[in-house]
Amino acid sequence: MRSGNGKKRVSFFITCLGDALFPEIGKQSVQLLEKLGCEVSFNPKQTCCAQPLVNSGFHAKAKKSMRTLMDALLVGACEYIVAPSGSCVLQVKEFPEFFRGDPEWEPMAETLAGKIWEITDFIVTVLGITDVGARLKGRAAYHPSCHMTRLLGVKEPPLTLLANIKDLEMVSFPGQDKCCGFGGAFAVKLGPLSGAMVAEKVDNLVAAGVDYLIGADAGCLMNIEGRIRRQGHRIKVLHIVEALMTSEK
């Protein structure tokens, strides 16, 4: 459904990491969507997508969180729900599997799964926009997060948007498509292995001589940035929304 002024109505899902640790990414996501002609709403009653609970095997508790999120995001007449995280979007799209045969919640889960989009995919696929008018000087590499790229299948939209940022040179690096070692609980349960994976990622970024590392999932970026800082490198880590909202002259 569109608003009376013809704008697409979007409900924004900020995600847990966005809300607790990276609120600026949430704010800039809303600003970007509004800049591109959307009417954005936000329900503060939204909660976790339950991915940590699912990954740890607590499915009953996870379903309680899922119900709360469905109630929050399906309020109103929004045609689309958009989030700045492929990992969380993937989890929401899997909600129907947890409510098979439930006459009340399965239809709601199916509706939500059909409405939710990762933000770069929404911009390119739904809005049909490939250049948002951003400008950022320097060399950058993109980290394709595992859930977003391999499972959600969102590969080209972020690359398309980055390729059209003026003055930004995108470069590749060895092991670019490898996991950064975050994986939520994986980084806690298998710390040494996770640390070795992110160390390899950062070493390759340094060798590539980039000014920026850009990604679309806050968890991966938090993990990689932590390693970059501990090693004293000057690579700046940006969520793709931050890059798309940059207008250096």
Give a written overview of the molecule.
By secondary structure, the chain is α/β, with parallel strands linked by helices. It has 14 helices and eight strands. α8 crosses α10 and α12 packs across α13. The strands form two sheets. It has a four-stranded parallel sheet, sandwiched between helices. β7, α13 and β8 form a beta-alpha-beta unit. It has two domains: 118 residues, Rossmann fold (3-Layer(aba) Sandwich), CATH 3.40.50; 115 residues, Rossmann fold (3-Layer(aba) Sandwich), CATH 3.40.50.
Structural class: alpha/beta
Tell the overall outline.
globular
| CATH fold descriptor of the largest domain | Rossmann fold
| Residues in helix, % | 40-55%
The share of residues in extended strands comes to: 15-25%
Tell me the number of helical segments per DSSP (H or I, 4 or more residues long): 14
Largest sheet composition: 4 strands, parallel
- Uncertain runs with pLDDT below 50, 5 residues or more? none
Strand adjacency order, main sheet: 2-1-3-4
Terminal residue distance: 37 Å
